[in-house]
Structure prediction request, 254 residues.
Amino acid sequence: MGELYFIGMGLSRSLMTNKALDIIRKADVIIYDTYTSFSCDISPDYVRSLTSGKVIEANRDLLENRSAEVISLAKEKAVVVATVGDPMIATTHVSMAIEARKAGVKVSVVPGVSVHCYLISKSMLSSYKFGKSVTIVYPSYGIMDTAPYSVIKSNRSLDIHTILYLDIREGKFMTPNEAVSLLLQMEDMRKENVIKEDDVIVVGSRLGCEDEAVVSLSLSEAKKYDFGKPPHILIFPSNLHYMEADALKWMTTK
Ligand SMILES: C[S@@+](CC[C@H](N)C(=O)[O-])C[C@H]1O[C@@H](n2cnc3c(N)ncnc32)[C@H](O)[C@@H]1O
Prediction:
């Protein structure tokens, strides 16, 4: 009898739980998700060094379009879908989990340290004040997706903060500089007075790694700031409680 495990590996080796390690060590097959996120020190080769199970590097096609193959394998074997961070936060793996359950396969989820929670904690902004999050994507065929603009506008109208994930496209990671430039272009297009150059954002870089950084700066400062190596993530805050404003003062730029 097989089983399908969705394992969160955390953001880096030091943040991988013992439970995740145990299940990876014992699994027959590990489907390593290379599509939804990236870690500074967890890699398919690192996972190979932990287990005698077969490690398969999975792209979007295998995880979304060919998930039936994974589910069919899990009818007989212990199969792990291993994701950097948490397997169910800002991913589409719930769809595979539901299909597997419908097919009679036992499904287990092992949460991991997610960039979402890690960022909220490091920013010290109130966890009660975060709304819908959204990904800023590169324009495709010259068309700009202004969904992040709509989400920030809606969250701000409710006085809540927005987490902005940044696009990963064919191995290229969007930089905070590119993200800020796209947000300002969205304002130019929509002109609904949502995003201004002097708005303050929080940028998390390589969270969970030795060289992680969290900085708070204005959009105009962010345009030319060197944020270092990826991955990066942004918070677009709404109005700040005085304690949140104090917390951000400790995170000013270098
Ligand atoms: C689609 S989300 C997936 C989140 C993942 N499932 C988790 O729970 O951590 C991936 C995006 O989160 C951000 N991200 C992921 N890991 C990060 C890290 N260690 N430091 C900063 N940003 C990170 C990047 O913007 C990246 O493109």
In short: The pocket of S-adenosylmethionine is lined by residues 11, 36-37, 83, 85-86, 89-91, 114-116, 165-166, 168, 204-208, 231-233 (CB under 6 Å). Residues 202 and 215 are 6 Å apart (CA to CA). The mean pLDDT is 95. The chain has ten helices and twelve strands.
